[in-house]
Structures are given as C-alpha cells and as structure tokens.
Write a structure and sequence with these properties.
39 strands; Udp-n-acetylmuramoylalanyl-d-glutamate--2,6- Diaminopimelate Ligase, Chain: A, domain 1; alpha/beta; eleven-stranded mixed beta sheet; ten-stranded parallel beta sheet; 15% helix; UDP N-Acetylglucosamine Acyltransferase, domain 1; 2 domains; flat
Length: 342
Amino acid sequence: MTEKGITLGELAEKLKGELTGDRNLRVKNIRGIEEAGCGDLAILLGKKFAPLLEKTKASCAVVPEGVKKAPIPIIQCKNPNLAYKKAAELILPDRIPRPSGIHKTVSFGKNVTLAKNVAIGAYSVIEDGVQIGDGTIIYAHCYIGRSSEIGENSLIYPNVTVREKVKIGNRVILHSGCVVGCDGFGYEMTEKGYEKIPHIGDVILEDDVELGACATVDRAKMAHTIIGRGTKIDNLVQIAHNVTIGKNCIVASQCGISGSVKIGNNVIMGGQVGMVDHVEVGDNVMIAARAALMKSVPANTIMWGIPARPLKKAKMIYALRDKLPEIYERLKALEKKIGKTG
C-alpha cells in the first residue's frame, strides 16, 4: 500500500470515471463496502447494491454508471470490476510479496537456461535442459521436469509440478497444487490384468493461460494436449490426454474432460460438467453446470442437463418431467374409462 495514497481526482482520471465529490481527498486502501472506513476505497459492483452506500464509512466508492447520488464521494465507471483491478494496481502495487533472486536451496540439473530477472523460491527442483524466460517467478517447493520450457513473466505458485517436455507460454499462472504433464489414463486389459500404456507426448499451455489450484492436465499419448491462449481453468479440474481446448475458454471447478476431446474458442463450462471421450465442442458453446455431454455440439449452442441437450429442448423435458405424476393419474383414469366402455 502506498504511504500517501492517491487523490480522488487522480484516481478518477486513471479509471476514466466521473467523480462526484472532493477531488483532493485521498484514499490509501481498498476494502469491502461494509468493512471500509476512513481512507478506504470501496467498490460497488452492481446498482442493486446501491443501498449499501447509505451506511458505508468508506471515503469513496467506485460505482456503476447510473448511480449518481450517495452520502460519500463516488466515481462512476462503465465497468466497476475492471476499475477495481486498475485501482488495486495503483493503490496496492505490492499487495502480494514476490520472491526475488534464486534461493540457495534450489536444485539445478545440467544445461538449465535462465533469462534475466528470474526468481526461484526455496527447495524447488529444476531438471536438466529446462528453459525459463525473462521475469518468470517460481515459488518454493516446485518441480520443473526435464526439457520443459517456461516463457516470460509467468507465475508458478508453491507446490506445482511440471513434468518433462511441457511447454508453457508467456504470462501463464499456475496455482498451488497444479500438476501439468502427468501420465494419461490409459490401460489395456490382458490375461495378467491391466497393462499400462505409455504416454510419450507433451502438454502445451499457450500465452495467458491460468490453471487453478489442484488442476491437472495429462500429457498426450503421442502428440499434444493443448490449452489455448487466454483460457482460464478453475480449481480441481481434470483435463485428460490429447485434449485440445481453444482460445479464451472458461472451465469452472470440478469439470472433467475425457481424452481426445476437442473444444473450440470462447467456450464456457459451468461447474461439474463432464464430457465423454472424443466429442467435439464448437465455438461459443455454453454448457450449464453439472451437464453431462455425451455427443458433439455445434457452435453457438447452449447445453443443459443429464444427458446434456440444447437448452430449449432440455427445459421442455424438465417441465414435462414435473408433470409426470399428473399425466400418469390421468392416463390411468383414461384407461379405466376406455376399459369400461370397450
């Protein structure tokens, strides 16, 4: 947090917002609107929360456009959430401490290449032939496997495992507990039991990918498992071998994507979605939470239910299901009537 903070006039200019109130007043911290006090900036993400402005003790609030009156100074912004991001960068630039330099306990293999400004935390292991780009930060207790590549300005939090031959792009974020490049789930039944099938391919994480805590991405059998540029994966997601996910997708927590699935660009998956292997999902598809995808889906479709169906059809089926007891009773009465007159 900056010692002197920032004036509301400066802040409004940086946020490209409209200020109502004393432009010389300063804010030094950001807190929730119900906990904020003197010197704090609060963020109002939606108009429906406007009544909270009457009780807050914050010195100022960022609000959506259209919220024009409040007992405290306000800055109207088109997108309060993005304004919050910018405000945090301005007011709290050092809110998360980052390791710097190479800790003396780091274990290096042979022929490791480190660009400038790389930081590696305590007890991490960097195997033979690893390449790490400029400005990348690796926290403590991480493992980077043989011949893996990590681009520039990536951020790898503690206890991440990156197996051999994994390619990670620029500005990638891997949260604690991630495992990238583990063996695919592949076996063949024989007379002696299950024989493990080797997975000798790799994983490619393109630029600006983010993997949540304890997400796992399996390596391909012989080719590539690919996560496209800008895709964001939530905590506890399983991505199997040979999966391809396109650009700018969102995959919420506890989703399971089976082997060789192909997912297009701008796909959104709610929590606990499951997919069978080898299906294809087109661009701009939305899959509702807990849906079970059993077949391929064309572009620009909304899917819902178990098994997943197009939204309109799924709603009709659910509406009819609730009426089944009534329909059953009417059917019994009709059969009884027909039986008497027949």
